[in-house]
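User: Reviewer 2 asked us to show a designed sequence for the structure in our supplementary figure. I'm pasting the structure tokens here. Could you produce the per-position amino acids so we can include them in the response letter?
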């Protein structure tokens, strides 16, 4: 058993130790080991002999076989992520978060199958369902993110998978994940969760009954806005299907990117705590402003999702939304354009603050987003929140 598989360790310790197996960080012939698994770049793997080549045709994921199947840098990141999820068998890495989502759905769904997709899902996730999955003959029903155990009423004989994202990364509804996972297990339906917002630090998904948990490592795990990657971490029952599909699709990631994500992962615990703290300081300030309609942040006591968030989640990250009361889109544009500490840009979870406009009314199909006030999404970075608040105050002046 490697260090990172030791479930008695607490999450912050696992982040420090994860993936640093002696066979990946040292060589007895060199007389010592180094702290970080080095970047092993490889396409070709050399064999000692034909007998060796034949023997390794059945290589498992942590034996050198061919570059596409990874090198120790890749395995170290996968291993570190697996270690963060009690109940996980293994982790697969994909070149982006979207590739992880599409890779997982392709692995688990076949023509004729039915998928339940949360209506608050990340927009490219929806696009994969209405695009490629529909073309393959997989039907998708979008469901209300507030559906708990009553999701049972939407399960059909052909339903194979329920996909969740909580909180929704644009509108921040909190799903009753344990209730949905319990219904799914009882009916023989798999569950897959986009856990990018909480990460396993704040929501160890498999321990809550989920079968496959996904993260866009591009966001908090990487944390520095310089690399893209996605992961699927799964139970022993599901993992072989994911691996087989990933091999068939030729999914692979660069060891250089893995080294970047591993570097981010080591500090995830401290960064996420500060992102959350800074985010709450800004959200609390916004909630008292007359220009603000609603703050969409589940860790604020008044939020509609607060009770379930407080029951299930161990903390909050720094991504949330708010609405600008009674103004039009032009005013939202003036507000956003006037900010100086918030970059205007997609993605989130980096050390620097970001802002984007959001228009959920144009995305939903199972539910309606009726709030007429324009929505703004903030990713709160590691700046001093007082500077961010002063910046937002200037934004309100520009309204
Ligand atoms: C960004 C994001 C993704 C996709 O990740 P990429 O690495 O950008 O492909 C998936 N889900 C959520 C919630 C995201 O915010």
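Assistant: Here is a per-position design you can include in the supplement:
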């Amino acid at each position: 058993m490697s260090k990172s598989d030791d479930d008695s360790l607490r999450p912050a310790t696992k982040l420090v130790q994860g993936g640093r197996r002696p066979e990946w960080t040292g060589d007895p012939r060199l007389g010592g080991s180094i702290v970080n698994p080095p970047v092993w770049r490889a396409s070709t793997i050399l064999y000692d002999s034909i007998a060796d080549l034949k023997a390794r045709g059945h290589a498992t994921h942590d034996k050198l076989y061919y570059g596409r199947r990874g090198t120790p840098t890749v395995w170290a990141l996968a291993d570190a992520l697996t270690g963060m999820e009690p109940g996980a068998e293994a982790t697969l890495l994909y070149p982006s978060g979207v590739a992880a989502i599409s890779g997982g759905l392709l692995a688990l769904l076949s023509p004729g199958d039915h998928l339940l997709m949360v209506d608050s899902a990340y927009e490219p996730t929806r696009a994969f369902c209405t695009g490629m999955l529909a073309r393959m003959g997989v039907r998708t029903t979008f469901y209300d993110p507030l559906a708990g155990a009553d999701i049972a009423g939407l399960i059909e004989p052909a339903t194979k998978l329920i996909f969740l994202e909580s909180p929704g990364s644009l509108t921040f509804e909190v799903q009753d994940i344990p209730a949905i996972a319990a219904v799914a297990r009882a009916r023989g339906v798999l569950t897959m969760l986009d856990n990018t917002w909480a990460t396993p630090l704040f929501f160890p998904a498999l321990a809550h009954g989920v079968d496959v948990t996904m993260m866009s490592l591009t966001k908090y795990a990487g944390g520095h806005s310089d690399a893209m990657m996605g992961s699927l971490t799964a139970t022993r029952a599901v993992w072989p299907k994911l691996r087989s599909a990933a091999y068939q699709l030729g999914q692979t990631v660069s060891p250089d990117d893995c080294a970047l994500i591993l570097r981010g992962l080591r500090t995830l615990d401290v960064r996420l705590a500060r992102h959350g703290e800074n985010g709450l300081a800004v959200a609390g300030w916004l909630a008292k402003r007359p220009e603000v309609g609603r703050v969409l942040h589940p860790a604020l006591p008044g939020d509609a999702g607060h009770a379930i968030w407080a029951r299930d989640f161990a903390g909050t990250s720094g991504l949330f939304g708010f609405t600008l009361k009674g103004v039009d889109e032009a005013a939202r544009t003036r507000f956003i354009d006037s900010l100086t500490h918030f970059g205007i840009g997609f993605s989130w979870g980096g050390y620097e603050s970001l802002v984007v406009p959001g228009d959920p009314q144009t995305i939903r199909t199972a539910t309606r987003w009726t709030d007429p006030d324009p929505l703004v999404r903030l990713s709160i970075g590691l700046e001093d929140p007082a500077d961010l608040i002063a910046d937002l105050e200037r934004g309100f002046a520009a309204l």
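For the response letter, you might also mention the following. The two ends are 58 Å apart (CA to CA). The chain has a mean pLDDT of 95.
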